[in-house]
Amino acid sequence: AVYRRVFYQSPIPPPPWNDRTLVYPKRGTTNCISGKCLSRLPAQTMRTIILDRCYCLGDTHLLTALKKLENLKHLAIRKCHRIAEGAFQVVGQHCKSLTTLELNGYFPFAQTTDMSHVIHLVDLQVLKITHNPKVSDHFLIDLVQNCQQLTNVDISGCYYVTDVGLTAIATLVRLEKLVVSYTRLLTDDGLKNVRGLKEFECRRCLFSDRAMTTLIRSSPELQLLDLSGCRNITDSTLEVAKDVCSGRTNNVTLKMICGGTGILAKKEIGREKMPTLLNLYSNRLYAK
Question: Which segments constitute the F-box/LRR-repeat protein 15-like leucin rich repeat domain (predicted)?
Fold first, then answer.
């Protein structure tokens, strides 16, 4: 069962509970949660917690709750700016069953070294640490050495990550989805060893045709390629995509999103003849 309860100041009903998911706040409600109510969550059955823009949420009550939630599978903390270093340490020490972790936004009270606690979550499959200046190459190197089960990595907006960190991510043998949008220090050199992906998103990055064509050729199951705003990408990438998709025998369709690139700069997207297994879009909304 899926549990969706909005937390107000009122207490949570006592157990027994059969529900396993908490999402806060629900759209259209306030987000004044302090975290005290989290200690009432059913520790044995709770599997997913999503905390989104909980501006009053601090470490004290969150830590108490997380220490009990050792069966938690999915934890998302999005733009909860009062979270400090203690939360990351407790997650790394007590939430060992996590397979999905999302940390979105800037945590001003945490330090760069606090990110290191994440590497102890060896069962992680999905990691989304986005728009966080505390994510470094060193962190990513340690991460891939310990979290070999990762299939989905999102470091969008982590603008201190360089080719060194991207090269480390490329060593993940199970990696299927990679998102590096808005990371302006990444170049072709970091991308050259990334291969075998099913989805790749790199909005407003500096990659050129050289790296992108290599990625397309080395990823026969590539289904989504979001190049939005990558101004160094031209029709050369499109021609390689056409050639690769024309020769595909696995019936996998590639969706390419190329708004803001140099692809078909002088033509209207949709009128160019494409292979059956290649769909071209100018906007992500049309690629659903």
Answer: 134-244
